[in-house]
Amino acid sequence: MTMFALRAPELVRFGLAASVAAALLAAAPPSANAQSTPITVRSCTILSYSASSPHEFFYLQSGPPSQSNRTYTDGLKITYVNTSNKVISRVGFQVTYGMHSERVIDAGTISPGAVIERTFGDDFSGGPYLGSTPSECRVRGVRYKDGTVWRNPATPAP
User: What is this structure's pTM?
Assistant: First the structure.
């Protein structure tokens, strides 16, 4: 087995090189994916509907009538803010509620600082209502109007 030892002058050179490398990395501009999250989710709420007569959802529901006096999910409402300094054209969210997980996409022109409130009626509708808070509601990624993309590093690739 070969072992090596650094002598005092080598330690100084090694320490100086490490310090210079750390300073250069700190001064380098962050990559597009290393920036902070460009979207802040203010609220993420599962909407509910209490069935007292058949088909009282806010949209036309197909299938058998709902059972009376039961509470069902009736969509998803997300309020978020564009905290970046760029215009965003698409935001992808990952929302999990009970055993159901959905990728939810919002598209439009979202200016820096804009507060957006969206209701998604087709997502999380007609299932058992387990309360208003999903177990997960996070930003998966963002597409900016200039075509660049930010992906949440905590999100596995599709």
Answer: 0.68
